[in-house]
Prior knowledge:
heterodimer; A: mainly alpha; 66% helix; B: Ubiquitin-like (UB roll); 21% strand
Amino acid sequence: MTAAAQREALFEYLLRLGDNCLILGHRLSEWCGKGPVLEEDIALSNIALDLVGQSTLWLDLAATVEGAGRDADALAFKRDVLDWRNFLLVEQPNGDFAQTIVRQFLFDCFHVELLQALTKSANQEIANIAAKAIKEAVYHRRHSGQWVIRLGDGTEESRTRAQAALEQLWGYTRELFDGDAIDEMMMQAGIAIDPGDFHENWRDAVTAVLGEATLTVPEATWSIGGGKKGVHSEHLGFLLAEMQFLPRAYPDAKW
Amino acid sequence: MTAGNDWPLWEVFIRAREGLSHKHVGSLHACDAEMALQHARDVYTRRREGESIWVVQSTDIIASAPADKESLFDPADAKIYRHPTFYEVPDEVECL
């Protein structure tokens, strides 16, 4: 394999890491000022900031690897929807609080496993970012996991909403573990592991919490992916329109 | 933001550094102890203010009554001999 192809694959892989964090972080930031209580508003905003911070690290590195003169801001604010590489799961709308929490929990469980693996990456810069990010991800999982239990094992209404959120989002989780050619190249280079390798760990972690929450693990009756290849749901365009408006309308604005 | 009105109030204590004691920093609402800890972390330690958190339900704190102030505290006013000011400190003593 040529060095150029290798670099191209690494760039794509880093975009996936960065885009997942940025899109989910932006989604969570939509709760800012609208949280169910002040304390939870701050908690969600903290998590949003953690994720946006992580995305900066990943996209900085992606920009360096690409070597085309773009920086993290250019990657965040000047890419159109087809160039985004995040999972469909993270771009799904916030819905009600249960939907936000379930989406977060399903991702957090994946995120911890992924970062754990990346701390052992042959690429030292990736390993360093992962080591920093995993501390945050472990807290995110604790936060969302506790909420899943509270909602599931809560009132009839919270339970119904949490179960509905699970049914609605479960089909998007398959994509988190489906490896493709890029994953294969990262694996060969010792940079990452096959995401399928931690599907079982993820399932165990999720199942344990759902059990405690008296919620039912949904039947995998449908699944859809494509986000990591740039095929997105209709929601991402609207998110980008809001997120990218300012830097596009006022290029290089400083504040 | 009204949903939290029926959640109990918790008092938050943060220890800034090893060796210091926990200090009261404020209060918050939470529906259980784990949530109180997490909220305390998110609200009061965002700028690395601490390395240990205590949360206590406000109703579990037994407070002295303001009306008892005179009988509880005024008698100490007349006992200045309890302050360590009646002996000479030798120059050699550095830490006191």
